[in-house]
TrEMBL record, chain A:
Record GO terms (molecular function): aminomethyltransferase activity; methyltransferase activity; sarcosine oxidase activity
InterPro entries per the UniProt record, alphabetical: 2Fe-2S-bd_N (IPR042204), BFD-like_2Fe2S-bd_dom_sf (IPR041854), FAD/NAD-bd_sf (IPR036188), GcvT/YgfZ/DmdA (IPR028896), GcvT/YgfZ_C (IPR029043), GcvT_C (IPR013977), GCVT_N (IPR006222), Sarcosine_oxidase_asu (IPR006277)
Name this polypeptide is given: Aminomethyltransferase
Protein EC: 2.1.2.10
Lineage of origin: Bacteria, Pseudomonadati, Pseudomonadota, Alphaproteobacteria, Rhodobacterales
SUPFAM superfamilies in alphabetical order: Aminomethyltransferase beta-barrel domain (SSF101790), FAD/NAD(P)-binding domain (SSF51905), Folate-binding domain (SSF103025)
Signal sequence region: none
Principal EC category: transferase
Organism, scientific name: Shimia thalassica
TrEMBL record, chain B:
Molecular function terms, GO-annotated: sarcosine oxidase activity
InterPro entries membership: SoxD (IPR006279), SoxD_sf (IPR038561)
GO BP, one annotated term: tetrahydrofolate metabolic process
Protein name: Sarcosine oxidase, delta subunit family
A Pfam entry, by short name: SoxD
Amino acid sequence: MRVAGKGLVDCSKPLRFLFDGTSYQGFEGDTLASALLANDVKMVARSFKYHRPRGIVGAGSEEAGALVTVGSGAHQDPNVRATVQEIYEGLSAQSQNRWPSLGFDILSVNDLAAPFLGAGFYYKTFMWPKAFWEKLYEPVIRRSAGIGALSGLSNADRYEKAFAFCDLLVIGSGPSGLMAALTAARAGADVILCEEDSVFGGRLNGESLEIAETSGQDWGTAAIAELSSMDNVRLMSRTSVTGAYDQGTYGALERVSHHMTQAQGKPLETFWRIVAKRAILAAGAIERPVAFRNNDRPGIMTAAAVRTYLHRYGVAPGKAVTVFANNDDAHRTAKDLVAAGVHVAGVIDTRTDAPDGQGYPVYKGAEVCDSAGRRALESVSFRYADGRVDKLQTDCLAMSGGWNPTVHLTCHMNGRPKWDGSIQSFVPTEGMVAGLEAVGACNGAFSTHAALLQGNAAALTALGDLGLKTIAQDVPDAEDAPYRLKPLWAVKGKGRAWLDFQNDVTVKDVKMAAQENFRSVEHMKRYTTQGMAPDQGKNSNVAALAVLADATGRGIPETGTTTFRPPFVPVSIASLGAGAQGKGFAPERFTTSHTASVERGAPMIEAGLWYRPSYFPATGEKTWRESCDREVGYVRNAVGVCDVSTLGKIDIQGPDAGAFLDFVYTNMFSTLKVGRTRYGLMLREDGTVMDDGTTARLGESHYVMTTTTAAAGPVMRHLEYVKQCLRPDLDVNLVSVTEQWAQFAVAGPKSRDLLNGLLDTKIDNENWPFMACGTVSALGVEGRLFRISFSGEHAYEVAVPARYGDSLFRTLTSRAEAMGGGAYGMEALNVLRIEKGFITHSEIHGRTNAFDIGMERMVSQKKDCIGKTMSERPGLTDPEREQLVGVKPIGPVKQLTAGSFLFKSEDSAVRENAQGYMTSVGFSPEFGTFIGLGFLSNGRARHGEQMLMVDHLRDVVARVEICDPVFFDPEGGRVRG
Amino acid sequence: MRITCPLCGERDRREFYYVGDAVALNRPDPDAGDVVWDDYVHNRDNPAGVTRDLWYHESGCASWIVVTRNTITHEVLETALASDVKEATS
């Protein structure tokens, strides 16, 4: 119910929202949790395993009870913490893990079967018969256990990633964080202040306390106003710092539009990577529940959460509230409620020396031992030391077992926290994350005054480290009460007492883990699943290991903690991968002829990130093979045009360019004449072939290298490596010009005729022989012409600046068509090169060397080069190695397939008998059959041998003959024509 | 992780390509023998502690950089241009 005159919500802005189809009203500034409590909705979920009714346990991002699903369809978002989700007009939330409804849930029978469903039950109960596990038990268990479900649809929301840099990152905006930010910002440091909540102030908004003789809330508001007026401060609300990483890098998740009816173009979430020279962790502390019988009933929550709902949201979570405490701090809850006019049924304190009540009864030296109520709390039973049991009618129990500092980020780089007996909890070990200092409650300093002092001191230290001038600050006066606490983790007694609300782990489960010898805290965690739910044990870890310590007869420090890992709060994969969904994962690279190719109906195929035309269909053609055969015919009989711009182009200049190329290629390039092109072979240092291509010498100290499409990036990296790491003595410079030039192959007997129609100065066989290169002018555009061939035909590659690519491609193809030719695609290009035995990365696939592909003579004996020494190892020139061969069918089956294996005719086709394998195949119109390239053991000596080609996957068995890999024009006359 | 490029300054490690131990700078003579070459091409230490790696500032200035760092603490102790390191040793 609402409490008049309290809260920071805007009562002038009512909002309607739906929960499980019922419409409720809340106000701007409410979370779903506060709005539900204001409407007296207590039960909001069913538990993970036993399907027990669950309510709201806390008020922060560590919520362990109230997980709901928000939205529907592709926008459906499961496991949203109701305490974090702000309401907006039209918000629709659903409860989870129940069927058919939250109130009547069939699987709540699990709770009756609880004796059989303890920790690890599925390893014991469902062992027999074995075959039932996969088919029956596991599916049934999986369906009954669980939390929210995914929609199964592609995520429709937009996510962003962003980077930020600062001198000082302050994590948390409670009193210590605000003080640290003020001190640092006033000294001129660049400060980023991150706050998980939608409003700044942390506990200041959830408490009634004074700072500098004004209310804590007002002091916080003034501090934020001052910070927001400063240019050197960036305030980030709704931003959880999720992890600490090397060199001052922090991950942070900003919930940008989760609170909005319409995103208005904003992303749903932004994942930040913040680089901070220094960081101050002011993350506060999380109040821990106490384990007692039936402590999971809706209406039972932490004492501080009750205060937060009162002060921050103006909501009393009950009409008659009871407090259960082992410390002084929790008594504030009773005081604040009474001051606000809310009835307090009483305070039950385990300590006999507990403070007296101020308008409410205090039951000293007693423990709550049970709760009752159908779907929500109706009464609690409490027991005195002498065994006397009493009962209180109450609809809300505010419990406090003390506070656990939020040490998580200090442990993200393998640090371990240390035990502090005075607060009965773990505190950060100093220096576990370089440049990060913890202050305030997360450092075990629980009084407001101590938080302010530590915040100020840490900021001064950071300013000193940064070399910034410090200005002495007055730290305001504030509450400085001592933290008095008597440890209590679990109330003794029968029945189930919950530790981990989210994963339904009870005190019994932890004790059973210890009994069954899972005594290490890491083993206990995995055996019981305690701490493995979305809250990652923030509510239960310390209590669970205290119970384990007790059960194993060890102290808590000896028992230790499990490992804290990022992220601090759940982070959607979509935000981590922002920008990499769909096409963003693999950006498309288009050639300048892309539009023209698509206009011609060419199916585009991927070549790395590039898209290249597969073939150009003509009217009446029914299969790709018909198109491919026609295009091969263009090149063999007339002229074909193909965009080869995707090949890597590297401009190499400098007086030592020739010497450099001699070192990276196996063959000589310093001796290449200006105006000539040469085929080059490049090895890795281990002797394996890295890449091949042609390199043209355009000037005395100017070369242009082409690489294969696939290896353009790796070769560029390799060349820079050779230049910088191995041969800095050479005066040479490299730059990738792949995208600067559009380059087209013009191939076929009529290629020169086609070009001469475009070139401003005509060429002939004398002034432009095979392997010539140079600058030309085509239709007034200065370009480059290379007489090289990947088809075995009289051919050229003509390059122009990329902006002329589209127009040149259209001109070349239309003129080629007039001459009986036209454009050809990848399929035809592949057939043409297989007919000539030219290799691609299908053959130089990372396991073959120069000897294997028959190019060992290309490794010059006159010089050293990368890979030369290692390529001479005896094993790399063993005749039994698989060598490049041609393969043609000779039996009734004419089909060849790449990836199939070669066997001796008399051998059975099993792996051990494989003699080689096929790498490339294509249908040759020239020979009217499939032909292929492959590798065969001692293959060069086996030309003419008949073998079996077997493709076990596609079930193809063909009789083949091994032959020379050059099928077409072995003398090479056509290329010089 | 942040790496200081000697030319560009401190940058996110996503800008860099990692290749391995900086021992790659010490390419043996062609006639150094099988053992030396085998060691150079294939064998690498995997120390817990200080290492010298080669990183390539691929999304930056294309510098190859020798990064000295500690694999236990993740501290980056020193960065230098590989070409400077190579020239100083040869």
